[in-house]
Design brief:
Distance between the termini: 45 Å
Shape: globular
Strand content: 25-35%
Number of strands: 12
Largest sheet: 6 strands, mixed
Helix content: 25-40%
Radius of gyration: 19 Å
Structural class: alpha/beta
Oligomer: single chain
Low-confidence stretches: none
Length: 261
């Protein structure tokens, strides 16, 4: 669905932020983008969302040049889930989710019964319909994140761009969010997510990209590229990737452990 080839971007020619980035995101994919702070992950997302104009390369969706599509057309294809934040006005959770329907409205148009129904379905799918009247700014981080995902679902775009969807969430809400992401993938969504937790690549993703200093170091299956050597190089600190056995399910999973001397 999404194909990026040779993408480069800079704010100033003397400081290139992204260099020759190429990646593909197909149906049902969950692609996890890992890398240290300041490496260009958010800038890449902004390029994909057409918030930053790329300097070189191409971004195509189903063979169509993304840069030549109108904002409305792009919104029908791709939705953005930012990190949970506050709103400037005291919107209720349902009102925030309803914002996902803006791309489908005509200029000055009002929402329809279909829009309202899609909002209800999105919130019910994530188990937050009972929170419809909650003030967004008074919700917990996990609740806010679910509302923002529901907004993306109401938008009915099949590609979800998620910027650290588990940021500032406790363990319980992190796992809940990862389960939601896996379920969305099973339902046909294509998801590109950034994360500061390499373990998430093993828990939820079928593909991973390691990026440092605006360059892709490696990409492929998590089991193949999320390794002790690669992570230690990626984060410039010793990291050990090992296996943990879950006795209750007779199952083995990989985990990432930072090594402190």
């Amino acid at each position: 669905m999404l194909s990026v080839k040779g993408l480069s971007y800079y704010y100033h020619p003397d400081r290139i932020v992204l260099k020759d980035i190429s990646l593909e995101l197909a149906g049902h994919d969950i692609l996890c983008l890992l890398g240290p702070n300041g490496t260009g992950k958010t800038t890449l997302l902004r390029c994909l969302l057409s918030l930053n104009k790329i300097k070189c390369g191409s971004i195509e969706i189903d063979g169509r040049d993304l840069t030549k599509l109108s904002a409305g057309k792009r919104a029908e294809i791709m939705a953005y889930v930012p990190q949970a934040t506050t709103m400037a006005f005291p919107y209720e959770a349902r009102e925030v989710v309803l914002m996902g329907r803006v791309a489908h409205l005509t200029a000055g148009g009002r929402t329809t019964r279909k829009d309202q129904k899609l909002v209800d379905e999105a919130m019910e799918q994530l188990g937050i319909l009972q929170m419809s009247r909650y003030l967004f700014n008074e919700m917990s981080g996990g609740e806010k994140q679910m509302v923002l995902v529901a907004r993306a679902l109401a938008q009915q775009a099949r590609i979800l761009i998620m910027d650290e969807p588990t940021a500032n969430l406790d363990y319980c809400n992190q796992i809940k969010m990862l389960k939601v992401i896996k379920t969305l993938s099973e339902n046909g969504y294509s998801i590109l997510m950034t994360s500061h937790f390499p373990d998430h690549a093993f828990l939820a993703c079928n593909r991973t990209i390691l990026m440092r200093d605006g360059v892709i170091m490696a990409q492929g299956l998590p089991d193949e590229i999320v390794t002790t050597e690669n992570l230690s190089k990626l984060y410039s600190t010793q990291v050990c990737v090992t296996e943990a056995r879950l006795d209750s399910r007779d199952m083995v999973t990989k985990v990432c452990i930072p090594v402190m001397y």
